[in-house]
């Protein structure tokens, strides 16, 4: 059975272009309809019950987030579309929700659709859209939260509460300031790019640290950082110069 999809896009040319792309390159999808306004999108989500929504971020009648606020239940997956590097892209990345930059390339569309279909096959509860709305509506100065899915549920963790991340084979362990350790089934590389602009640094092949939680920097024995939880994390020789530069900036 095909996956029912809805396109929400207020520009007619973009709407027609994406509709044709879906029909031509995504045989797994059944395009159930298109919407051009926030009100129309909410109504069609309620009546059609799509499993996948291509959702434009900026529309003349509002935003894609207005649609999500009003659409009850979030029993669908979302792929955002945007014509520029929108301010909300960071929040979208932290929430592990996919997005496509216009003009959309067919291979990127196929990859995003394939990823969404794999996620639909998962039996776990999907809280990514809830996390996205939490990050979008956070008060100025507040942390982004990151979602950590485990076999027991989903934790929404503020970045400032994370001391370090440690690779454990294909898994990653998050060490938090409250003493908890959360293991997730994603590798360390997946978090590196997302976290690095928020004061995190991959100090070693097996470790990412929060630079604000470095309590001591020891230069002997190859070099290592002592973290606020007492952990001694080795500094990779390849990372030593970058680490020294970042720590020097922190002390200024």
From TrEMBL:
Which sequence positions carry the modification called 4-aspartylphosphate?
A: 56
UniProt xrefs under InterPro entries: 2C-system_Tx_regulators, CheY-like_superfamily, LytTR_DNA-bd_dom, Sig_transdc_resp-reg_receiver
* Domain HTH LytTR-type, residue spans: 146-249
Keywords of this protein's UniProt record, alphabetized? Answer: DNA-binding, Phosphoprotein
GO molecular-function annotation terms? DNA binding
Q: What domain of life does the UniProt record list for this protein's source?
A: Bacteria
- Domain Response regulatory, by residue range, is 4-117
Cite a single Pfam family from the UniProt record. LytTR
Q: Which PROSITE patterns match?
A: HTH_LYTTR, RESPONSE_REGULATORY
Official protein name in the record: LytTR family DNA-binding domain-containing protein
Q: Which organism is it from?
A: Chitinophaga pollutisoli
